[in-house]
Amino acid sequence: MMGEILVFVEHDQGQLSPSAGEALTAARELGERLSQKTAAVLVGQAAEGLGTMCAEYGVQFAYCLTSPVLSDYGPETWGQAIVELANQCSPSVILSVGTDRGNEVLAQVAARLSAPFAANSTVVQRGDAWEITRVQWGGSLLEDIVVDSELLIASYNHHSIEPAFFPGDNEIEVRTVEVELDPTLGRTVIRDRVTLTEGVTLSTASVVVSGGRGVGSAEGFAQLEELADLLGGRVGCSRAVTNNGWRSHTDQVGQTGTRIAPEIYIACGISGAIQHWVGAMASKNILAINTDREANMVTKAGYAVIADLHEVIPAVIEEVKRRRS
Amino acid sequence: MKVVVCVKQIPDPALPGELDPSTNYLKRDDKLILDESDSYGVEMALQLVESAGGGDVSLVSMAPNGAVGGLRTALAMGAEGAVLVSDAALAGTDALGTAKVLAAAISRMSPDLVLAGVESSDGYTGTVPEMIAGALNIPSITFAKQIQIEGGNVKVQRQTEAGYDDVECPTPALVSVTAGVVEPRYPSFKGIMAAKKKPVEELDLSALGIDSSSVGKNGARQETVQVTDAEERQAGEIIEDDGDAHEKIIEFLGELKVI
């Protein structure tokens, strides 16, 4: 019989990550397909109380790994803690969502167990071997791979799973597992956490109003800021904008910036080069405003308006304000 | 201070994803260029050595076919020399195998700091830097936007969604550099000329003491079956502005319940 499915549930100091729902939903669904027990893995004492939230996604077991070395996040300590658990329960799969933390922790696990790691996957199936589809080139290509290993380590491409609560009264059994860790592994220390953006971040915002070269200047973003504020969203930008020094790199959407998945992406004066597109492609709806009918963004958007953003955005702002007054 | 930067040479991203139909590997016979993701690591290393008032930036790379085009670009930026692990047996190596090979090459160079990009533009697994740190058993910090070396410690501002974390670990350590946080310098003409004479040490697997069956296609437990274009989005409704475009936009936002 094959072993259980372990899913790494991301948190920071006991605060569940927004990606946790994706991880738990994907793991429960895989467990059902393979008829295997699925267990959430919570690392550190601080995560002990998160079991009930895991239960909402239909996962019925959780391991909470504790050790004095696990008091705060560190890729090596967290990775080795999961390795210790894997040595005890011989899982068939270790999963995460391919966030920064999800990928680096499982990369540590893979290196330590010398097991193959399929990162940023969209499909995980078991045939004679593991059959995986994963993204390449920032999501513009899909690669089908076969993984020949007793133990599969895989992360799901961030934003490719729709988190779903599991109906009914869900119970969860949380087992605390004390793991023996070499204290010298705790040599990477977080001294401080600095918050620069309050409230919603670019990657969690449900509305992103983004500007490209067509905005024309740093001052031109004031209109986009105003529209984003009215819609409860955040402002993003393309690389041309950060290269010109109009916005900081933290606002950049794209392969070398933030990957977003809002309900609506409003792309103003953005041509939509592939490096930008891969950061925006997970958006549920795209509205492009551009003077160039042939722009990539226009040909990929669900709704495109061929217009000068400097005329149309102020008119939209006025109309939203008028309706609300 | 000795800094080693891991660099990958990739096909030109302007022509992404050309595969050899017989092997399903990315074609690498065309001219390879320096992966842009890695140019940030090279720039960061040069700045660190400059501000430390001395030191050495070396490159390490792996390629099955002895390609050096991308390395020459990084040498022209100012790196002193490069180690290229090149062996026909490396074709088809997976992320774990790549990390093992690079780690073996790096350990011969005894650096204080190893820098890498966060992820390659092509393969895009984002896992190799962490696996190198695992193989070398040195601490690692990813997604750096700023790096400082102080005494025997490396202090990093690690980018987070809401800002950054101040993270610290002892050297030797591996740090991966977030793309876009520094402006990679353009190689000067002088730099380009000098780069042609800079040393590129080519090593094969036996020089690193690595069994060729443990890497490449045979060592990899992942095999690529095929690569396809991700589903392209089809154009939706396109509206020409006849003076009422803003009303159409309002209507659309209303349908999505944004307003």
Report on this structure.
The complex is a heterodimer of chains A (325) and B (259). With 325 residues, chain A is an alpha/beta fold. Chain A is built from 9 helices and 17 strands. Chain A has 2 domains: 5-187, 3-Layer(aba) Sandwich (Rossmann fold); 207-324, TPP-binding domain (Rossmann fold), CATH 3.40.50. In chain A, the strands form 3 sheets. Chain A has a 9-stranded mixed β-sheet. The N and C termini of chain A lie far apart (65 Å). The model of chain A has no long low-confidence stretch (mean pLDDT 93). Chain B has 259 residues and is an alpha/beta fold. Chain B has one domain: HUPs (Rossmann fold, 3-Layer(aba) Sandwich), CATH 3.40.50. Chain B has helices spanning 36-52, 69-77, 95-109, 128-136, 189-195, 205-208, 216-219, 245-255, and strands at residues 2-6, 9-11, 32-34, 56-63, 81-86, 113-117, 140-150, 153-159, 163-170, 173-177, 200-203, 222-229, 237-240. In chain B, the strands form 2 sheets. Chain B has a 9-stranded mixed β-sheet, sandwiched between helices. In chain B, strands 2-3 form a two-stranded antiparallel ribbon. Chain B starts with a strand and ends with a helix. The mean pLDDT of chain B is 90. Chains A and B meet through α3, α4, β7, β8 and β9 of A and α3, α4, β7, β9 and β12 of B. β17 of chain A pairs parallel with β13 of chain B, so a sheet runs across the interface.
